[in-house]
Each structure stands twice: as structure tokens, then as C-alpha cells.
Specification:
By secondary structure, the protein is an alpha+beta fold. It contains twelve helices and seven strands. The strands form two sheets. A five-stranded mixed beta sheet has the order 2-3-1-6-7, with helices on both faces. It is elongated and about 105 Å long.
Length: 373
């Protein structure tokens, strides 16, 4: 399962998983109600006398099955959409259970079904068993569905208890067993769901760690190598602008030599914070490529806008420097900026090379300046 295929929020993930399981488990279940009715009708004493009822009930069970198949999961994975889908799908389950419960009651009551009423009873037992073990994700709703399956038949047996006492007691005892099994299945389902959610959360944390620079908490080169070609392909396909900013702190080795590596690390952290203040959109991708080299990927950003933002950062740093451990530290940066050009950039490597050459030109021109690719 791809990480992007499911919601990231725990509660939304629970609803999404429940909806997935519910859809899979009801997709084929509906056809067995139709099959059970056809057997019940076909083996009745006089099927021809039940022609109209047989056709109508066949259409009813076939229609309920078709509605289950057509009721597809929503594209949106928000909690409101998933809850609405689950509520609607459970209404179909309730309707099917009630239709079969009434059918079972009729089979027990009407003499025409004397030869086939065992089919109705066994089918009721099978459907309720499937409900207890396959739909335990919602315990209360499963109990309601099992009640709709069982109660009409039990009422008929109670009314005829003088003749049907053994069947009444047997079905009632089995219903009690199913309720106990339902409680166990409910606990097991949610325990498994908790474990799956914990595993996904651990995967997300590990992926975040593998894509983050431990010192600055910006993206690292591994993330850059993954996302840069993807963003470039999206820009090419949708004909949208994409800008790349490469930054290199000037004479950073002198900071380490004069003030020590701890101060140098603090300086890199302060510079990362400075980047966050100047590139604040959610889809701006800020990265530390290594050492004192940084990058910013700006989707949907024209070159002129990227140049303006980068120049504002350069000017701020040149005039204000950084506050490191409460002390001002003079620091400047050289910057190369480029915009994706499909005529020049055959791939991400060619685009990066152009911007990297601009960064080299900025350093060659005296540093503390910006060069366009």
C-alpha cells in the first residue's frame, strides 16, 4: 500500500480502512441473498403459485446487491465523506437483512414453503454468522443487522412454540453464541487496526527522518533527488513554472575556524530559519544539500518572482547578518536562480547544472550577489 493512498490522520485512516473492508466484504455477500431466495422459491411446494412474489423478491434482492456494487467509495478521504459513505452502505445492509428476515418469517409461517423452509433457516444462520465475523468493525450496527435477520423468524417460532419449540431454542442459543463471537471479532478487528496504524506511523516517521537533515530539519539531498525530477515532470506536463534557488554561505569555513563547529552548526540552523521566513508557501521545498549549500524548489513560481524573493533574502542577510547564541554574526550568501526552460532543460540534471553554473558565477563575481541561470 502506497503511503499516499490512504489518509494520514489517524481517525480518518480508521474510517478509510473500515470503509475499504466494508466494501470488500459486502461486494459478494448480496448475491447469496438472491441465491438463497431462488432456492427457497424453487424448492417450495408450488413455485408457480408464487410467481409474482418470486419475481418481485428476486428483483428486490438483485437490486439491493446491485446497489452495493454501485456504491463506490468516495474519492475524498476526509472524515465527513467517509462517514457519509459508511452510513449509506450500512442502510443497504440493514435493508437486505430486514428483507431476508421477513422472507424467513414468511417461509416459517406459510404452508407452501413446508418443503423448503429449512433452506430459509439455514440461510439465516449463515447470513448472521457472516455478519458476526465479517462486519464486526461496527458492533452495534452488526447487532442491529443480526436482529433484523433473526427477529422476524423467532417471533413466528414463538407464536408456534407448541410445535416449533426445539427450533426456537436452538436458534436463540445460536444467536447468543453469535453475539459473543461478535464481541470477540470486534476486539480483534480494532486491535489489528491499531497495530496497522502504529506501523504506518512508524513508517512515516522513518521516511521523514530519511528525508530530513538532522541539523536544520530541512529536506536533505535524498529528498531533493527524489522530488526534483517529479516536480520538473509536473511542470513540463502541466506547463507550469518551476524555479530553483541554490545558495552557498560565503566563507563559511572561516566561521568554523574562528568560532568553532558548535557555533557553525548554530549558524546553519539560524540560516535555515531565515530561509523559512522568506519562503513560506506550503509547497516551497527547502533543503540542505550538504555543508553550507542549500536549495529551494519553488513550484508554480516564475523566475522573476523567485529572483525577487532570493534577492530579498540576500539583502537581509547582508545587512542584518544572523543572531547566533544571541550575538550578531556577519554572514553573506551567494545565490544562483533559474527557471525551468523546456528548450534548454532536457531533464532535472540539465536544469540543476544551469543553476549551479549561475551559483558558481555569483561566487566568481565576488560573492554576496545573485546570478541568474
Amino acid at each position: 500500500m502506497q503511503p499516499s493512498a490512504h489518509p494520514s490522520q489517524p481517525e480518518a485512516f480508521r474510517l478509510w480502512r473500515e470503509a475499504q473492508d466494508t466494501q470488500v466484504r459486502t461486494r459478494l455477500g448480496g448475491v447469496f441473498y438472491l441465491l438463497a431466495w431462488l432456492l427457497l422459491w424453487g424448492f417450495a411446494g408450488a413455485p408457480g403459485q408464487l410467481l409474482l412474489a418470486g419475481i418481485l423478491l428476486s428483483l428486490l434482492f438483485a437490486g439491493l446487491w446491485l446497489l452495493r456494487l454501485l456504491h463506490r467509495l468516495p474519492d475524498a478521504h476526509d472524515q465527513a465523506s467517509l462517514r457519509h459513505w459508511l452510513d449509506s452502505h450500512w442502510r443497504l445492509i440493514f435493508a437486505t437483512a430486514l428483507a431476508w428476515g421477513l422472507t424467513h418469517a414468511a417461509a416459517l409461517q406459510l404452508a407452501v414453503f413446508a418443503d423448503s423452509r429449512l433452506i430459509a433457516t439455514l440461510s439465516t444462520v449463515a447470513f448472521s454468522t457472516a455478519m458476526a465475523f465479517n462486519f464486526a468493525m461496527r458492533k452495534r450496527r452488526a447487532i442491529i443487522a443480526m436482529t433484523l435477520l433473526y427477529l422476524p423468524g423467532l417471533l413466528v417460532l414463538w407464536l408456534n412454540r407448541a410445535e416449533q419449540l426445539a427450533s426456537l431454542v436452538t436458534l436463540a442459543c445460536y444467536l447468543g453464541y453469535l453475539l459473543l463471537a461478535l464481541s470477540r471479532s470486534h476486539r480483534e478487528y480494532h486491535t489489528t487496526l491499531d497495530l496497522e496504524l502504529q506501523l504506518l506511523e512508524q513508517q512515516a516517521r522513518l521516511q521523514q527522518l530519511s528525508h530530513s537533515d538532522s541539523l536544520t530539519q530541512l529536506g536533505n539531498r535524498h529528498l531533493f533527488n527524489n522530488r526534483f525530477p517529479q516536480l520538473l515532470e509536473q511542470a513540463r506536463r502541466h506547463q507550469r513554472p518551476l524555479s530553483l534557488v541554490l545558495l552557498d554561505l560565503d566563507f563559511f569555513k572561516q566561521v568554523n575556524d574562528r568560532h568553532g563547529h558548535l557555533t557553525g552548526d548554530a549558524c546553519l540552523q539560524c540560516f535555515a530559519d531565515c530561509l523559512r521566513r522568506h519562503f513560506r508557501r506550503d509547497n516551497d521545498l527547502l533543503l540542505r544539500l550538504g555543508g553550507e549549500e542549500f536549495a529551494v524548489l519553488l513550484p508554480d513560481t516564475p523566475l522573476e518572482q523567485a529572483v525577487s524573493q532570493a534577492e530579498q533574502l540576500r539583502q537581509y542577510l547582508s545587512s542584518e547578518g544572523l543572531q547566533v547564541h544571541g550575538q550578531p554574526l556577519a554572514l553573506t550568501t551567494s545565490i544562483g536562480v533559474g527557471g525551468y526552460d523546456p528548450q534548454q532543460d532536457a531533464d532535472a540534471e540539465a536544469f540543476f547544472r544551469r543553476v549551479d553554473q549561475a551559483l558558481y558565477a555569483a561566487k566568481h563575481n565576488g560573492r554576496n550577489c545573485l546570478a541568474r541561470a
